[in-house]
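Input structure tokens:
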């Protein structure tokens, strides 16, 4: 006869409770928020470029590590210099994100803190834990100089944690997960274990095209340019995508097309290659350039182009 003993679950080594929480990534433009989000998720879900204000939407990236699910919300860099409808829209997005989250990552460049950083810091809620992320640590040549800088930062706010890192180093990213985990509430996961983002393939396609647009035009093209997906058809493993690059002036249209159409071809080629890698299939991409004067200062245009 088998001898069966009932052992309490606590003595059997019960699995740890699931944790899940919303984490906002905030900071002035160009401190590396999108690069950090992509590193945390493990795949590109937010575009990066040297042009200020690349991120315009509230982008959710998801990463599940053991029993903890981290739901990251990338935000636009808070706008302090312009008052167009686009910038007001971006700032509303930042405020909306901050009211919903469990934890805030305030990203600054290690060793630097300017007026725009201070303006963002002043907006952070008092009732949320805020972790100071000193990004681009690899660009600091003399680490000893960080000590007085950190002391000054601690005087500005009682940060829950201080994490110096380089978003490009995997070891730093893994260390950050361990630091953030205790701040997540004990509750069930919001997404499946293998989820990476709540954004659609169509949205990611428009963002990738916009990234190539900004990277290849440099500082000449104003950031008030956007990308709209006009047509999307799936034919087996092939995706047929038609998209419009929307600019404000005829002169900007010429910049995007380039001499003999060469720049537009390059934007299309680099976008297609990245889309094929992301979607693991063939892509036929057709790009057009359209002029819509004043779109960035029109609430109606902003809604029609998918801004919240």
């Amino acid at each position: 006869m088998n001898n069966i003993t009932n052992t309490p679950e606590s003595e059997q080594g019960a699995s740890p409770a699931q944790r899940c929480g919303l984490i906002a990534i905030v900071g002035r433009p160009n401190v590396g928020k999108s690069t950090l989000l992509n590193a945390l998720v493990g795949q590109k879900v937010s575009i990066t470029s040297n042009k200020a204000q690349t991120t315009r939407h509230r982008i959710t990236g998801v990463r599940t590590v053991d029993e903890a699910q981290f739901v990251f919300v990338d935000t636009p860099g808070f706008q302090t210099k312009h008052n167009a409808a686009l910038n007001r829209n971006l700032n509303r997005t930042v405020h909306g994100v901050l009211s919903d989250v469990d934890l805030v990552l305030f990203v600054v460049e290690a060793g630097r803190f300017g007026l725009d950083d201070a303006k963002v810091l002043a907006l952070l809620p008092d009732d949320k834990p805020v972790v100071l992320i000193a990004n681009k640590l690899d660009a600091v040549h003399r680490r000893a100089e960080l000590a007085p800088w950190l002391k000054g930062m601690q005087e500005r706010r009682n940060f829950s944690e201080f994490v110096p890192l380089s978003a490009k180093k995997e070891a730093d990213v893994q260390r950050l997960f361990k630091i953030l985990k205790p701040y997540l509430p004990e509750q069930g996961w919001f997404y499946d274990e293998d989820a990476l983002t709540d954004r659609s393939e169509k949205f990611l396609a428009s963002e990738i095209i916009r990234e190539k647009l900004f990277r290849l035009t440099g500082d000449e093209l104003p950031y008030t340019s956007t990308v709209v997906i006009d047509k999307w058809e799936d034919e087996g493993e092939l995706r047929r995508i038609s998209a419009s690059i929307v600019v404000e002036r005829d002169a900007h249209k010429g910049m995007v097309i380039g001499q003999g159409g060469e720049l537009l071809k390059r934007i299309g080629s680099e976008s297609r290659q990245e889309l094929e890698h992301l979607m693991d299939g063939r892509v036929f991409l057709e790009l057009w350039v359209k002029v819509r004067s004043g779109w960035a200062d029109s609430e109606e245009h902003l809604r029609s182009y998918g801004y919240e």
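The beta strands are 19-26, 59-65, 68-74, 103-109, 130-135, 161-164, 226-235, 238-247, 282-291. The chain has nine helices and nine strands.
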